[in-house]
Amino acid sequence: MDPYILYAATIAFLATHFISSTPLRPLLAQAIGERGYIVAYSLLAFATLGWMIWAFKRAPVEPLWPGLRLAPAVLMPFSFILFACGLFSRNPTAVGQAKAMASAEPARGIIRVTRHPMMWSFMLWALAHVLARGELKATVFFGAFLLLAALGAVLIDRRKEKTLGEDWKRFAAATSYFPFLAIAQGRNRLDLKEIGWRNPLIGLLLYGLVLWFHAALFGLRPY
Hints:
globular; 10 helices
């Protein structure tokens, strides 16, 4: 199949997700209503994702470099730990949790490491697969998720900066986009007790399950 179909699907997928950060979003919401916009956005996002997966499976294999097969073994455990910690921890950047920024110490637990643990989870997942596959179609497919998570975190920061004012400035001063940067710069500290053992353990258990069923789910042995 023509690889350009994958390129078109990937562009459509990214455009669908970034539209919410453009002036077009309020215009569409005004035209069809907020609920209508959310429904239309969700359907379009799933449709473009399905198109991209379909195109990826049928695109030709064009090697770019020898696949670094051990990259997932290094990166994926951290990806799943960040995913679980981000999912089960309070994050002031998440939807509906902006009030948490007004607390005395808004950055706690995994947020001391990075204010975007979920986004970094997706970035590490995508990067691991780009490196491991070493082929053009995988670079396009997984690279799209890497780009979406990386720029998505930046856009979240910009939106919060505009809407939350001084609370955001205080929160941003104590946290960092890049993992461990705020800690290395002395703006925060690593507190393993706050992170605890439960969420990292959940992440590692999820990693083990995905590793075990990877071939059955995706038709490819991970290592």
